[in-house]
Sequence to fold (806 residues):
Amino acid sequence: MTDLSTLTAEARRRDAADPRFGRPGAYLTSGIAHLNGNSLGPPRASLSGELERAVSKQWARRQVGAWFREGWLDLPRSVGDKLAVLLGAGPGQIVVAGETTSTTLFNVLTAACRLRDDRSVLLAETGAFPTDLYIAASVSTLLGRRLHVVPGTGIETFLREEGHRVAVALLAPVDFRTGERRDVAAATAGCHAAGAVTVWDLSHAAGILPVRLDGDEVDLAVGCGYKYLGGGPGAPAFAYVARRWQSRVDFPLSGWHGHAEPFALRPEFEPASGIDRARTGTPSVLGLLALNHALDPLLDVGTEALYGRNRSLAEFFLDCLEYRNPGLLSHLITPREPERRGGHLAFRVPDADAAAETLRERGVLVDARPPDLLRFAFAPLYVTHEHVVRAASGFCDLLEGLS
Amino acid sequence: MTDLSTLTAEARRRDAADPRFGRPGAYLTSGIAHLNGNSLGPPRASLSGELERAVSKQWARRQVGAWFREGWLDLPRSVGDKLAVLLGAGPGQIVVAGETTSTTLFNVLTAACRLRDDRSVLLAETGAFPTDLYIAASVSTLLGRRLHVVPGTGIETFLREEGHRVAVALLAPVDFRTGERRDVAAATAGCHAAGAVTVWDLSHAAGILPVRLDGDEVDLAVGCGYKYLGGGPGAPAFAYVARRWQSRVDFPLSGWHGHAEPFALRPEFEPASGIDRARTGTPSVLGLLALNHALDPLLDVGTEALYGRNRSLAEFFLDCLEYRNPGLLSHLITPREPERRGGHLAFRVPDADAAAETLRERGVLVDARPPDLLRFAFAPLYVTHEHVVRAASGFCDLLEGLS
Fold:
């Protein structure tokens, strides 16, 4: 058993080398090593002040006029355009309509299926986040399609053999359990070769991985705002519609904010042009402002640097384990090659809940997926290499205690 | 032309008579007479502190654990049960899933239609808020039903003649334009006699009118959180499902929070029992907490007192107009009898936008519905009789200037 404390000096050196990351006091992490950013990130220290300004300077001063005079009405678009920078999309293709991720997926998936009315199959992966499967089943029922759920490794084969029947493939760039990454460009091209429309759930990629929605010719996408994006508990989700589809998508959640002239209050729905037609009802301003505020430091640093830092932290974590005892890496179920991973590492342990609790007592917050999965996420802005040593040290003790 | 300032003493007497209402500093109204609570009410002065506590005491201290240890996970139910008190419903029948009003209506309306799969017609009123008609059209398309939109006065006739074909009637207790009130009990009974399911949009009734969802045997209902309820811009909407329907409703927005065991992450959707199945995805905690905070003073006062105060304020406004010049009441399009009205009064003026701007310059905030409708809402907690004199005075000057 090797003492990891000798690595602390190295961790500090790495942390000091780039002051853009791990700025003291920037995030309210309560002093813990917050390795749970793939579930809910910590708040920025400046968030309360931001909300106070929204209430007392915007809402109280302008009252209902704030919708126009404080830019509230534009928030779904303006926050969407900020996200576009992180997701490799040109402006005017992402909107934050103010709904939950499940509901945003429902809206986008239904519209995607309608783009291929001549095809019967909605294709999804067994490894999808369950709510995606629930929503895909609901959409299939409503539209009279058939949902096929196949293992991620079987998508390519299915497309080759049955692709002519596939209307839409619902995919994710990162397996939320194993952390394994999928090549978005290749998978999208495979779907297109079969004539299928792609819908990507970016929840586990946004804010951590380089995503190139335009460059990879993605059709439609959704993602949640509260994981690596840091928008807070239940932050509103986003929707991407590639410009080439925008005049043809027909959304079921045709609320008045998606109308060409919302304030004309006409009896008939006429969809707005462009991405605005993906809007729904009146969106939560508090939710949008919190997400908007969370994005600024991510944009300041930029996607490549965020991804670089994530890799550095995750590699350092694995280095720590290896330094202590190479055998411990046998618990890892995430691919060892950095380019095949998302933002987190997943390990198998006998009792995930108990393991997470043990780590929490040592000041390390991780995510347990019962019965036996423990996930360590390496969010770039508030996780430091020093945190990583603490987490690795606690985790090594735990693993060694098992054997 | 009579000077209204003589009425100020009477206004002050009435305001002083009941200290539960118009408490100085309780709401941030910016010193204006805020007669726009049917659109967006002002924030409570204590809201910023409440949000600050949520961020620094709950989120920052507990991080993701706050979902369990700070009651976040129960907010859709606990806020729903608070609303139930205002809406005449027993507990466990209202949920705030975290979606916009339009989307909540989509979910509820689809489920309602599915309860009557043998019937082809979805019935709505021409006077419905337009987003309700957009959503009703979308639901009709998805489910292969036919949407019939008839004038509110024609609902009864339609049900008598074609009621056997009506699956669902979508109704509102208050016409959002004219302020005319509909008898919920009678209309619901009429629908039931025809074998139709009712869906009520309570947006213009919740927090201002006595509503008896259980007593009137309403089937399903929705409503928005940012009007008289005061939940703030884009506050999440609520859904009511009468207990007798809860085991049979099948919602299309089958997100994981509506699952019987959300955290088991099973691949198949199994709806939760009770009202929880009306939940969708992960809801915005900030939006829920803001709505929750807004409800407390309404509950403290109670529905009957809120309604009594609303009537007192509205009657006093009409008294002021009549005192000044009885002819001015010819502009009123809302019924003159208090029991036939909702929470607001609507007047016809030649240019609503210009009129609202003129009043705003005199410290009176009202709602303009172009081209020619001006709405004055009398929210009980922050509108005073003295505000009413100011508003009436400004409005009389404006009307007299027109002639």
About this structure: The CA atoms of residues 129 and 176 of chain B lie 7 Å apart. The first strand of chain B starts at residue 33 and ends at 34. Chain B has two domains: 4-45+302-402, 71-300.
